[in-house]
Amino acid sequence: MPKQSPATDYAIALLHVANSTGGANSPDESREIAPAVIDHVLRPALADSEIDWTRCTAMVQGDRISILASPDVPKTAFVEVLPNRLTAALHRYAETVEIGPATRFRLMLDTGDVSGESSGADSAVDSASRLLDAVAAEPESARSAGGLDVVLSSRLYHEVVAGDSGVESYRKVTVSDGDGSVEVWVRSADAADASLAWLDALPTEHPAIHEFLQRCAFFGSAPIVLAWFAGTGTAAPTPAELSAALRAGIERGLVTVDDPAGAVRIHPLVRAVLRGRMTAEQREGARLDDAGC
Using CA atoms, how far apart are residues 82 and 69, in angstroms rounded to an integer? Predict the structure, then answer.
């Protein structure tokens, strides 16, 4: 009996494009995924997420493309960074090409043990694809049109997201994948992007506060006391300065500024987006600075 290769834990991504018909009982219409979407949306988004395309195995199957990442690619790059980069790439693509208001993109993210045999990879991708189809068949999903939905398998959600950033931005959905009921976690990346649009103006209108928030993005969910930064080389803004610059975020409950205590609390979604928009050098610099190195 031939010796089997040991199984390795891979990150799996599927990008699916469908035409949402708008009816609660109408399934999505399949659409061929255009090569331009791969070249001008997916590959730039992967590059911006620092996921090396050459270290991934890609396969186009009709209305979707599957990506099997090298085991050394961190899953956080797929979960915390890629959705925002993909949303931005879709917005840029829509400025030059008419996508259509009924077109819905879905990014399915999963993780699985894949042996060195090709059948192991096929099985893992097929499993993720069945979950994606189950989500697409949901009535609420069929009614949704435009933008990007991010779907996490329960395994990946609990491995990367649960207990950390982004918990409140995902909703649990129970679907049937043919073998029984399973849980997946879904969020609308475009809706999140719209609610966080006020962050886009910070780098130019309030660069010092934007840099300060980037450093705070690596803290936990507890209130961050501004006095902690005294003598660290990081200029902390006053509560009044934060309140003025972050008014839109405060109104949405995404940032809380406690003036008497001199503390700020940042929503997990904001922290995840801030980290996702930073380059590797910026993220590493923020970590080192916060560690006092």
Answer: 13
